[in-house]
Request: fold
Amino acid sequence: MIAEHRKAALVVADHSRDAADCRQLLEALGLAEPAPKRRGRPRGEYGHGIPARYSQGCRCKECTAAFTASAREWRARVRQDPSAADRAGHGKASTYKNYACRCSPCVAANTDRCRAQRAARKARAA
Ligand SMILES: [Zn+2]
Ligand SMILES: [Zn+2]
Reply:
């Protein structure tokens, strides 16, 4: 809300009889705050064990399992379509893993990633 609007709204609030009166006056003056826009269900209302909840940051066993399963399904689906790997781009470890591309740039990228992961694991263990 713009500062002047806020000031005007406070004056209106001061001169109104009650909350309903205040709201009516603000609406008449075009100063009423628009109702907050919300799309879909509010965050807290989803149960656990769904991939969307995992995407929101929940790492409970059920949500993790649901996300893993949905990622596996997605991977199986995109692997059916060879052009999907082209769209994803070659020379990436993610294309090797997700799209099962075994072209040499993707294989090389995956080898690099495995090497980096191995080194990180070693560093953590030490
Ligand atoms: Zn959860
Ligand atoms: Zn590739």
The chain has a mean pLDDT of 87. Residues 81-126 form one domain. Helices lie at 3-15, 19-29, 51-55, 61-78, 82-88, 93-99, 104-125.
